[in-house]
Amino acid sequence: MVTQRSSILDRLLVLEMVRVTEAAAVAASRMIGRGDEKAADAAAVEAMRLAFNELDFEGTVVIGEGERDEAPMLYIGEKVGKGIGPKIDIALDPLEGTTITAKAGPNALAVLAIAEQGCLLNAPDVYMDKIAVGPGYPEGVIDLAKTPSENVAAVAAAKGCAPGDLMVCVLDRPRHQALIAELRTLGCGIQLIPDGDVAAVIATTDPDTGIDLYMGSGGAPEGVLAAAALRCVGGQLQGRLLFRNEDERARARRWGVEDLNRIYTLSDLARGDVIFAATGVTDGSLLKGVKRRRDGSVTIESVVMRASSGTVRRVFTQRRG
């Protein structure tokens, strides 16, 4: 599918988005291994907000870390930027992997995606059931309406292998016990991760990771961010919002979600020309983390992608700490 280049998303914004994720990652990196998730997240949030507010655009957070009453998070509906220039919708997670960062684990990232107004799903901060696969498969090979066994069988058939030859990535959570048990009966390899499902979904696009499928529930914000990345590099993803109580259903309705059982496709979650940027906080499968040198400088690794051009750029930065 060819994506038309946006007249709103200037190519200069590509590098600016990297600067935003870099700021969040560097700030969060000071809290690596300190055991304080909230402090790590707060540092990333404040740095990302300050970086956004130096830019000439009218940004609206449509996928964030919470709603207005949950400050200091970059909340859904928050306005960022100088308020002049193009109007842009933003999905973000200033620190994807707060627990990872607190424990000095792998794959913590600062991530965001931007698009023209109305092109990113505007959803509440609730859970989302997700399934994702990398590029090269026939459209519709995965389907959330089907069982995990049916999806594994479909992907295995398309890949030309047995179901037991597939590696499936799943968040290591008690809620996934039944899913893990079903995958075990199929003989699948399972890579259990403590956190960081944006990086896990992107990993399905890289043959070197060995991950064929991502399955399970995680945050809806991470689902939109992962979809934005796949729009740039290829692959398929479906998501369905999950609600634990009536309050969460009411919040969804407030944000314009009418069909609470809808299965969202990749283009439902992120459509049009999309820019995705991520910076490593800790070392992981996607990016290396922030490193501090004896002279006080820091090295930073980021990736930035654009749907209309299909380009993926890796950016290595060294600067004073």
List keywords for this structure.
321 residues; alpha+beta; Fructose-1,6-Bisphosphatase, Chain A, domain 1; D-Maltodextrin-Binding Protein, domain 2; 2 domains; eight-stranded mixed beta sheet; five-stranded mixed beta sheet; 9 helices; 13 strands; 30% helix
Account of the 3D structure:
The chain has 321 residues and is α+β, with helices and mostly antiparallel strands. The protein has two domains: 12-120 and 274-320, Fructose-1,6-Bisphosphatase, subunit A, domain 1 (Fructose-1,6-Bisphosphatase, Chain A, domain 1, 2-Layer Sandwich); 127-269, D-Maltodextrin-Binding Protein, domain 2, CATH 3.40.190.90. Helix content is 30%, strand content 27%. It has helices at 12-29, 37-52, 98-102, 148-159, 177-186, 197-203, 220-233, 246-254, 266-269; strands at residues 58-63, 79-80, 87-96, 109-116, 127-133, 167-171, 189-193, 213-219, 236-242, 274-280, 291-292, 297-306, 311-320. Strands 1, 2, 3, 4, 10, 11, 12 and 13 form an eight-stranded mixed β-sheet that branches. Helix 6 packs parallel to helix 7. It is globular and about 50 Å long. The chain starts with 11 loop residues before the first helix and ends with a strand.
